[in-house]
Amino acid sequence: MKKKILSILLGSTVGLVVIALIILMPVLMIMNFFGANITDGYIENNSEYADEYIKVANKNIKAKNGYVSLERILYFYLADNTLTFDEIYTDNIDKETKKLIPISEVCSIQKYKVLDVCKAENISSSGQIDEEQAKPFSPPIDFSSSTITSFFMEERVVYGEANVHKAWDIANSEKTPVYATCDGKVESVSFPYSENKIDTNDTQAGNNIKISCEVNDLKYIVFYGHLFPNSSKVKVGDSVSKGQVIAGVGTTGYSTGNHLHYQVYLDGQVIDGMSLVDFNYDLDNSNGDFKPPMLPDNDNFQPSYKN
Ligand SMILES: [Zn+2]
């Protein structure tokens, strides 16, 4: 039976094409032949844009300009690749509110107006966030001294293993303060590591804290991973307020260097935590517990820390 099917396939042009496609498919996928593809807010095959995106995200997040997702940047870039990530990022942020500008407004700028993606019917069917967005969170760390090393839904390889990163990795030196991003309750404090050490067998993001909060009837869980040993300033059941120091940065567990793994869930679903941050929030004035981050020799600090 198998032989019969094979001889039919080999004997016809259609059959040969089918066989060629089956063999070629994985090769084409590895070569990224199909390019980036936006599905349900997630850009498949995004690794080719990761370095450039991280560079532009860092520049703007450090300067506290605001946040623009890779998805929003590619909405315009894939329509016109003479545009730079840098200019798209800038054009999509409102300088005062530091929020994303609705696509229809960006499309009123002449250089975008001419693009196909700026036609009204394409904007409405794009599925892009185009509403006034709520920004209920404060920053989880002082962005100005930190470096983003991995963005939400980035396709990447860590310790030889490919994964999609459903969080943000934000590098800084050990013990840099980590903050509660919303008024809430401490759900768990798990600090199994007593040394600031990497453990590639770990599955729980090292020492970690989970905080729940409810904002405008929405239930969030904020997860902070790889924290420094014994740095927790909270315990289960504690009430915390926005901007309160909860722990310090570390590299405990499955990590490659000192960084904060910042992950947010809404009703049990993982979501883009950076999109909730109010970039006008001033951590310095949040409470008396603020201590300036302890930085290494800044010029020599080149973080590339992940997971
Ligand atoms: Zn991470």
Which key terms come to mind for this protein?
single chain; 307 residues; alpha+beta; Glucose Permease (Domain IIA); 2 domains; eight-stranded antiparallel sheet; two-stranded antiparallel ribbon; 23% helix; binds zinc ion
Q: If you average the pLDDT, what whole number results? A: 84
Multimeric organization: single chain
H and E string: HHEEHHHHHHEEEEEEEEEEEE
Approximate shape: globular
Characterize the largest beta sheet: strand count, sense, and whether it forms a barrel. 8 strands, antiparallel
Ligand roster: zinc ion
Q: What's the number of domains?
A: 2
Which consecutive residue ranges, at least 5 long each, have pLDDT under 50? 26-41, 287-303
Compute the separation of the termini in Å.
Answer: 49 Å
CATH class descriptor name of the largest domain: Mainly Beta
Fraction in helix: 10-25%
Q: Which structural class do the helices and strands define?
A: alpha+beta
DSSP E strands, number: 14
CATH superfamily of the largest domain, called what? Answer: Glucose Permease (Domain IIA)
Please tally the helical runs, counting DSSP H or I stretches of 4 or more residues.
Answer: 8
Estimated radius of gyration? 22 Å
The CATH architecture name of the largest domain reads Distorted Sandwich
How much of the sequence lies in strands comes to: 15-25%
